Amino acid sequence: MSQKVTTGVRPTLRIADKNQIPATEPERQYYFMDIAKEYLRQLSEEKGSPLTFHVSTFGCQMNARDSEKLVGILEKIGYVEEDSEEADFVIYNTCTVRENANNKVYGRLGYLNGFQKKNPFMMIGLCGCMMQEPTVVEKIKQSYRFVNLIFGTHNIYKFAELIVTALENSYSEHAAGHGTSMTIDIWKDTDKIVEDLPVERKYSFKSGVNIMFGCNNFCSYCIVPYVRGRERSREPKEIIREVERLAADGVVEIMLLGQNVNSYGKNLEQPMTFAQLLQEIEKVDGIERIRFMTSHPKDLSDDLIEVMKNSKKICKHLHLPLQSGSSRILKLMNRRYDKEHYLELVDKIRAAVPDIALTTDIIVGFPGETEEDFEETMDVVRKVRYDSAFTFIYSKRTGTPAAVMEDQIPEDVIKARFDRLLKEVQTISAEKAGALTGQTLPVLIEEKNEQDASLVTGRLSNNSVVHLPGTEDMIGKIVDVKLLECKGFYYMGESI
Ligand code: 5AD
Ligand code: SF4
Questions:
Q1: pLDDT of the residue at 10
Q2: Residue minimizing CA distance to atom 2 of ligand 1
Q3: Where does 440-495 sit in CATH, by number?
Q4: Residue 188 reports pLDDT greater than 50
Q5: Which terminus of the chain is more solvent-facing, meaning fewer CB atoms within 10 Å of its CB: N or C?
Q6: How many Å apart are CA 223 and CA 400, to the nearest integer?
């Protein structure tokens, strides 16, 4: 296929006549999708091939789900997905929970600029948590003028409308006279939840489902409440409707997403607890596995433990962030539980669901952390014996209360503690791995094995990885697998 040579020639759009923009959502966004589709058609004609996109996602499951929403809209308006960042529209969905996440984005923007210089069709978009920080947007405006579109976490539902504005600002005759102009739309907060927009799932058989947005906890180290806004729960009927649709579409596993799922439903007109929501979701035929993330220990109720105990579908895995084992540090962190409460909770959960896998998040080097405080963390790690743990070096986030606390810990001290913790966590994980060897358990087959084409890879209810001989047609199915052997952190098995 021959392709026109367009390098250096700036594309221009014939601007659509917008006369009846709907006032309500999601109709308004579907209207803009139609306009964007027409713009894409014009640009593709000029380019001589379809325009491509690439979305890079940083950070958590929440961002991964948001990216599926971005992809849903991009595909709906006619962009074609491209594996590499040499695409006509590259979007970074950013994370800002730790400082190094920000630095990574700046580094990669320079590299994207190189591609853009060679491709006059190329647009660069930035969204996600990092864009909710005014200093970041200022820096991009100053030093990264080539970025075409910036938006935040609260108005992602407006993506179609923003694409239309960005295309017009970048490729209209007006823009041609003024050089590329940035389209920026950041909201400080929102109470809005827009339903029924397109989503393109990464996996056919499993899906994230947002049940709530934002966080009200203000842990003193954490930037999330500032960039994701106040807590708001989706209506249960909307959640159930989405889950039913997913089930009808072949999804067998769902992951309920929220910054603190245990406080689900508090702000609804008709309040509902997370435990009650789970019981409703359990009733949806076709859904075989239910996961959720993240649980705050302070809000984990006895009712929830009871529901987990009696459920046939809730997976035997609980991610329960500890952050620190020292009650003194937990108080400074504003976590609103102490070491004793956390350990009691773990006992209760294990008594109710004996074979549950427990995982956690731990921060090392919070301001004021003494050797004794750190030993308390090590003590909890040894007592709980986590199946795995994410360990983080404390990162100072401007605007959070912890950033201005006295007694920030020197880097070398943190590093030494971090290494000790990591070693302990890994030793325990290794000792615990393999506990299920010899048993036959259901495995959801997720993908072909990357190294060995004769194998497929899946997960147990407790989230452990299993490899077994199999073929691609098994993907998305739950099969009974005999766990023959444990190698490090995964099992080798055979389907029965
Ligand atoms: N520094 C280090 N780790 C952090 N986390 C959140 N904020 C910070 C920070 N400022 C960690 C917490 C949280 C996980 C998602 O990221 O452990 O549970
Ligand atoms: Fe951050 Fe705490 Fe909210 Fe989790 S619960 S997002 S750590 S403020």
A1: 80
A2: 394
A3: 2.40.50.140
A4: yes
A5: N
A6: 6
**Encoded amino acid at 387, one letter:** D
How does residue 2 score in pLDDT terms, banded at 50, 70 and 90?
A: very low
Domain ranges of the chain: 27-185, 203-315, 440-495
Determine if residue 242 is left, alpha or beta; phi over 0 gives left, psi from -120 to 50 gives alpha, anything else beta: alpha
Q: Do 203-315 and 27-185 fall under one CATH topology?
A: no
The answer on pLDDT for 173 being more than 80 is no
Ligand 1: which of 63, 98, 260, 377 to mutate, judged by most atoms within 8 Å of the beta carbon?
Answer: 98
The pLDDT value recorded for residue 488 is: 85
The residue nearest atom 4 of ligand 2, judged by CA position, is 259
The tens digit of pLDDT for each residue in 236-246 reads: 999 999 999 99
Query: Which atom of ligand 1 is the closest one to the Cα of 323?
Result: 17
Does the annotation flag 127 for ligand binding? no
Asked if residue 215 has its Cβ within 6 Å of ligand 2, the reply is yes
Span 4-31, pLDDT tens digits = 445 567 888 988 988 899 999 999 999 9
> pLDDT at residue 78 above 70?
yes
Q: Which residues contact 54 (CB under 8 A, 6 or more apart)?
A: 81, 82, 83, 84, 85, 87, 89, 90, 91
Q: Looking at residues 147-172, what average pLDDT do you find?
A: 95
Query: CATH: 3.40.50.1010, 3.40.50.12160, 1.10.10.10, 2.60.40.10. Which one for 27-185?
Result: 3.40.50.12160
Distance CA 316, CA 308 (A): 8
C-alpha dihedral, 88 to 93 to 99 to 101, nearest 10°? -70
Does this model's pTM top 0.90? Answer: yes
To the question of whether residue 315 is assigned a binding role by annotation, the answer is no
pLDDT tens column, 50-71? 999 999 999 999 999 999 999 9
Q: Among the atoms of ligand 1, which is closest to the Cα of residue 60?
A: 15
| Residue 389: half-sphere exposure toward Cβ, Cα within 13 Å | 31
What does the pLDDT look like over 113-148, one tens digit per residue?
999 999 999 999 999 999 999 999 999 999 999 999
Q: Average pLDDT over the chain, rounded to whole?
A: 95
Architecture of the domain defined by 203-315: 2-Layer Sandwich (3.30)
